[in-house]
Amino acid sequence: MSQIGFDECTLELGVYVKYWKGSEKAEKSIVCLYVDDFLITASSENAINMFKGQMMNEFEMSDLGLLTYFLGIEFKVTQYGTVMHQSKYAKYLLKRFNLQQSNPARTPTKNWTCLKE
After folding, report:
1. What is the pTM of this model?
2. Domain map (residue ranges) of the chain
3. What is the pLDDT of residue 112?
4. What is the DSSP code (8-state) at residue 98?
């Protein structure tokens, strides 16, 4: 990663950052590497495409598209932004411990009505 201008994050293992001056503004990219999976975000789609092109030139890889699931966390894009949640994992736990018929209870967290489909 350092060969293509990324610096390793000193606070988080597997996270790499790159800052540079683009043609119109400063650009930045952040890449999370976990085993053989990349999670990429950047200040522009062009920066993401540039990184993916560099990786595809170096490695055999496939582009899985927009983020929906990573390391057990689900991601959903809504009109309010991107929401992270673990409803799939919660449903798995309910099934594993035979608690599917349990009564719901209020929790002291924000009610994310934007997740309803």
Report:
1. 0.69
2. 2-58, 69-103
3. 59
4. T
